[in-house]
Write a structure and sequence with these properties.
Length: 119
């Protein structure tokens, strides 16, 4: 009986963690921090993302953006970031960003997090 209770408790904990919403900071660390920083960071492949929400794409100094992104006319908000992070090359053909995040919950969490991070 004791073993069965422990097994039920363990399975319940696993099920709870499997459906828990992703946290923005965790998604950023797992999926974005390889290429991006929140602060200017030499050696990163992508531009820093602090203050990205509300900024016009391709305009932050100190990073060599693709011509496609500079010419895109995009201003980053929840909708434009969601489309871009879902499928960067489809949203802005010719962009340097190769990898997106297909999971809608992860995108929403990281976009909400980025909106809270000010430059």
């Amino acid at each position: 009986m004791k073993f069965q209770l422990l097994l039920v408790a363990a399975l319940s904990a696993m099920a709870t963690s499997a459906v828990a919403a992703p946290s923005g900071p965790d998604v950023f660390e797992q999926r974005c921090a390889v290429c991006h920083s929140l602060k200017p960071a030499p050696g990163k492949m992508g531009p820093p993302l602090a203050g990205v929400v509300g900024r016009k794409a391709g305009t932050l100094g100190g990073y060599a953006y693709s011509n496609a992104l500079k010419a895109s006319g995009i201003t980053w908000n929840a909708q434009t970031l969601d489309a871009y992070v879902k499928a960067p090359a489809k949203t802005v053909p010719g962009t340097k960003m190769l990898l997106g995040a297909p999971d809608a919950q992860q995108r929403a969490a990281v976009i909400q997090y980025l909106a809270s991070v000010k430059k």
